[in-house]
Design goal:
This protein is α+β, with helices and mostly antiparallel strands and about 140 residues long. The chain folds into 2 domains: about 80 residues, no CATH class; about 45 residues, no CATH class. It has 3 helices and 9 strands. A hairpin with a 5-residue loop joins strand 1 and strand 2. The longest helix has 10 residues.
Length: about 140
């Protein structure tokens, strides 16, 4: 196998790390094995072990990009590709950290262990309550017809 093919195989062999930028966003970084560029790349298990030594959590998330890349480089991995996350189409009415607008209350909610924890939305939300009435919620105030 040529050196170029070995490098390509190493990059394609799922050596992908996800960077946590926030709860809702993640960018992708690709790392290539520099210790064995002309031969067989190290295993994914070796990559994961180095990744966790450098501060990645169980979900492959890490916070300090510069420190993470420097540590990975010290373990023989070089970041050779970066793919930013697509901008999310996040609902602007959601409060930070929330996942959805409740169809029954018009509140901004997040699901925690199967339970919805809700608070007032940003802006105005139109919804139907449990009685089928048309309602409008702005902050904590809800008016139904």
């Amino acid at each position: 196998m040529s050196a170029a093919k070995a490098m390509r195989a190493a990059a394609i062999s799922a050596l992908i790390t996800v960077l946590s930028l926030s709860a809702a966003q993640a960018d992708t970084f690709l790392f290539t094995d520099t210790l064995r560029p002309g031969g067989v790349a190290r295993s994914d298990a070796a990559f994961k072990a180095d990744e966790h030594r450098c501060g990645a959590d169980a979900n492959d998330h890490f916070g300090n990009v510069a420190a993470f890349k420097k540590c990975m480089r010290a373990h023989g991995w070089v970041n050779d590709a970066y793919k930013p996350n697509r901008p999310s189409s996040r609902d602007p009415r959601l409060s930070p950290g929330d996942d959805y607008i409740s169809a029954d209350t018009g509140m901004s909610c997040k699901s925690v262990g199967g339970i919805g924890i809700c608070g007032p939305p940003h802006g105005t939300v139109h919804y139907r309550n449990e009685n089928g009435e048309s309602c409008t919620r702005t902050g904590l105030v809800s008016i139904c017809d």
